[in-house]
Amino acid sequence: MSASPPETLHGASTITDDNLEEKIPDHLQQLEDEWQDDPANPRNWTPAKKWTAIIILALYTFVTPLASSIMAPSLPDLAIKYGITDPTVTALTLSIFLLSFAIGPLFAAPLTEVYGRVWVLHLSNLLFLAFNLGCAFAPNTSSFLAFRFLAGFVGSAPIACGGGVVSDLFSEYDRASAMSVYYVGPLIGPVIGPVMGGFIAESVGIQYDFYVVAAICGVAAVIGIPFLRESYAPVIRLRRQKMTRDLEKAAGIHPDLTTPHMNKWVYLWINLKRPVILLTRSFICFILSLYVALIYGIYYLMFATFPTLFSEVYHFSIGIGGLAYIGLGVGFISAAIFGAKLSNKTYSHLSAKNGGVGKPEMRIPALIFGSLFAPVGLLWYGWSAQGEINFIMPIIGTAIFSFGLMATFLPIQLYLVDTFTYAASATAAASALRSLLGFAFPLFGQQMFAVLGYGGGNSLLAGLAIVIGIPFPIWIYYAGERMRARSSLAR
Q1: Chain centre distance of CA 284
Q2: For residue 309, what is the enclosing H or E element?
Q3: Cα-to-chain-centroid distance, residue 235
Q4: pLDDT tens, residue by residue, 202-251
Q5: How far is it, in rounded angstroms, from Cα 154 to Cα 148?
Q6: What's the Rg (C-alpha) of the chain?
Q7: What are the E-state strand segments in 200-348?
Q8: Higher pLDDT, residue 99 or 19
């Protein structure tokens, strides 16, 4: 089974309430042929227009993860400000953002597949600005937690539909580079946040962390609103045919929104539940999402434990403590450059050997390679911290870990986009699960390390990464095509 149907069919098929795809009728094939060469087709945009969209998307996607962690180095100061004495509640102020960050994509991604990508991205950015100002002015712990929750909910939209935008613009043969640029935002944002936030909180107060986030949102809006264009093909075509009042063509392009037998609210419900269906009924989607979620949860666990480790063991100040996150950033950038090249070369090589036909499983060798690094990084980080070796050693361990995170994250996202017709819903399902573990892990991190120590705790996490991250990708490489052939959810 090939990696995808003809590009013109992307997003044009529908999943009914029984979750079965319907192929485009034969009499509409002429429309599809015309669309293939149409300049309005996002796949036919100029490279400059495509990369402008990706850069704006990366900016939108950068600011929300940055906000998730910008306050991490100053958690002790926040506890003092609001009189918090329970360490679990202190960790909750950081991780509650990720709880709503897990819920938001289940709504945002399907909405983009009904109404288009652009308005969801713009609206979420403006609401995110408002709720971060709410965090800055929150008078007590309860209101602060409420605004953090709301900020995470609306801020999840760029993460939810970014993979779909990349799929809109690029074919499977050249989307790895675009995906790596896009995912630098959500992965480097949580690293830059603490570096900035530590010095900001130390010099002018923690509330200014949120002023900075709001200002970046404002800059993103000024750039994004004029220059970002709609990229979801069915919505573009539907709008154009409605403007020409050619209702027959409009019905063929997006039938469920134009035919009288389908109530729009029913159709919206079908789209809203699609990410849950993908996560619960596709084992491939579930197991790959679970692995990303595990690594992502460990990633946020580091954010919650870094302040204690580097202040109590290495005696860093709040500002200098933020610099400890730079190792994570070095690993991410290295993997974004190297991982994209490796993924593209591997995919091109394997598809050439297969007569020029690409398959999603051709993404898996890069995943297997990347999965070797996360356990090594965790063991390096944990035991160097346990032995209180020079501070650079645990930082090197975090760089190895983050290299592994990005090197596995990229091929998994590409596999999901290649495999499922509704790419935004598939990546939203993965985003929801990983954000749930990102929320949960920091809540028990301090207790786990208090019992097992940094060495034992990270050894346990490394063992989980090996058990899930090594055998299942190998199994998917050999069995994935057969499973996709039996699934009504895959392309």
Answers
A1: 17
A2: none
A3: 23
A4: 888 888 999 999 999 999 999 999 999 999 888 888 887 777 655 555 55
A5: 10
A6: 22
A7: none
A8: 99
pLDDT band at residue 254 under the 50/70/90 scheme: low
Q: Residue written as tokens 């640029």?
A: 181
- Name the more confident of 297 and 172: 297
Residue 265 confidence (pLDDT): 67
CATH among 1.10.10.10, 1.10.3720.10, 1.20.1250.20, 3.30.565.10 for 19-231+273-485 = 1.20.1250.20
What amino acid occupies position 149? F
Contact in structure between 435 and 101 (CB atoms under 8 Å): yes
Give exposure, 355-377, as e/b (b: 16+ Cβ within 10 Å): eeebbbbbbbbbbbbbbebbbbb
pLDDT tens digits, 377-435:
999 999 998 988 888 999 999 999 999 988 888 889 888 888 887 777 787 788 788 87
DSSP string, 51-83: HHHHHHHHHHHHHHHHHHHTTGGGHHHHHHHHT
Report domain extents, the chain: 19-231+273-485
Residue 199 has pLDDT above 80, yes or no: yes
